[in-house]
Structure formats: C-alpha cells, structure tokens
Task: inverse folding
C-alpha cells in the first residue's frame, strides 16, 4: 500500500516537568499555548488548570506540539498497549 503524507498535524513529547517544558517551549522559544488538559482518575479534562497534565502549543502551519507528563497505565491498559496492530 502506498499513501502520501502531506505534513504533521500533531506531535507529542513526554516530559518530566510540565513547568520546565512550558518555560522552554513557550516562554523561551515563543510557541503560544493553545490548550491545556488535566488528568484525574483516568480521564482527561480541560477544567482543572491547577493539575496540568498535557499542554498543546501552536508551532506553525497546521501543526501543534503536545507536551505530556508520563502516564501511569493500569494493568489492563498495559495489556492493551502490548497488542499488535495491523497496518
């Protein structure tokens, strides 16, 4: 199968410190924050600005960069992640 890639829509990086990552990518490099998510009890949400788990930055064109803290997967999540995907 052959397909054409036209660009990158999103790219996510796992970071150890959200504060340090935001300081570098947004404050130092100047990429604006467009969205932030919290993560509690296995769910993402946009309402909790005190517990930021993911930050999305606009980096140009149609592309945004995600900064995500490490996620602690449940045993069931780990089983799902090990399943092979067929492409």
Result:
């Amino acid at each position: 199968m052959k397909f054409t890639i036209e660009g990158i829509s999103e790219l996510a990086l796992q970071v150890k410190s959200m504060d340090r990552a935001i300081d570098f990518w947004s404050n130092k490099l100047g990429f604006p924050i467009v969205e932030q998510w919290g993560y509690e009890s296995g769910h993402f949400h946009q309402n909790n600005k005190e517990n930021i788990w993911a930050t999305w930055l606009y980096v140009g064109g149609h592309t945004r960069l995600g900064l995500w803290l490490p996620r602690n997967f449940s045993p069931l999540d780990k089983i799902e992640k090990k399943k092979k995907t067929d492409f």
In short: Residues 18 and 28 are 14 Å apart (CA to CA). The longest helix spans residues 18-28. Strands lie at 10-14, 33-40, 43-45, 52-60, 63-68.
